[in-house]
Amino acid sequence: MRMLASASAPGDAALWRRGRAAVVQSRVESVDDDLIVRVAAGDRAAFARLFEKFAPRVKSYLLRLGAPAPAAEDLAQDAMVALWRRAASFDPAKARATTWIYVIARNAWIDKLRRERVRLAYSDEFAGSEASTDEAPDEAVSRGQEEEQVRAALDALSDEQREVVRLSFFEDRPHSEIAERLSLPLGTVKSRLRLALAKLKAQWEQYR
Fold first, then answer.
1. Residues 6+ apart with CB under 8 A from 43
2. Cα–Cα distance between 76 and 24 in angstroms, integer?
3. 91 SS3 class
C-alpha cells in the first residue's frame, strides 16, 4: 500500500499544480474581463493597463499570423483602439478578454489582406499606372479601355457602395473608422462592401 501511495503521489502533485494554475489563470482572466467592463465606462486607467499588457502580445500574435513587423505594430495599435471603442460590446459570458482581443486583431489583419488584394485588382490593374512616354499605340488603347471599364464598374455601384469602396480600398481606412465617419453600424459597412465587391466582380467578368 505504501508503494501504491508513493507511486501515485507524483501524479497527484501534477494534478494539484495544474488545478492551481487553472485557478490562477481564471483569476487573471476575470481581472482582464473586469478591466474591459471599466473601459466601456470610460476608465482610461483601465485601458492603460490593458494596453500595456496586451499590445506587445497582440503584436507577437500578428507576427505569428504572418504580418510584417511594421504592419503588426500598426495593427496592434488599431486593435487596442478598437478595444477602447468597442468595449461596450464585450460579453464575458461569450468569450474571455484574451480571446476577444485576439479576434479583433485577427480580423484587422484579414481586413488588411483583403484591402490589399482588392486594391491590386481594382486600382493598380485598371487605373493606377501612368503610360510611359514610349507607350505603344495598342497598349495605350488597351489601357484606355481598362480605365473606361473600371469607371463603368464603379458607376454601376450605388452612391453608398461607391463611398465605402473609396474609403476602404483607395484611402485604406479600417472598417471601424468608416463606420464612425459615415455614422453607420459596422455591420452595415461590411454588408455594403460585400455587395459592392460582388457587383464589381460581376461587372468586370463580362469584359473577360
1. 35
2. 26
3. coil
| E strand or H helix at 141 | helix 137-155
59/42 Cα distance (integer angstroms): 24
pLDDT tens-place string over residues 69-84: 888 888 898 889 889 9
Mind listing the pLDDT tens digit for each residue in 134-150? 545 555 444 456 556 66
For 148-173, letters b (16+ CB in 10 Å) and e give: ebbeebbeebeeebebbbebbbeeeb
Domain 9-205: give its CATH code.
1.10.10.10
Give dist(CA 206, CA 204) in Å, integer: 5
Question: In this structure, what C-alpha cell is assigned to residue 16?
Answer: 494539484
Domain locations along the chain: 9-205
The answer to whether the CB of 200 falls within 8 A of the CB of 153 is yes
Q: Is residue 189 classed as helix, strand or coil in its secondary structure?
A: helix
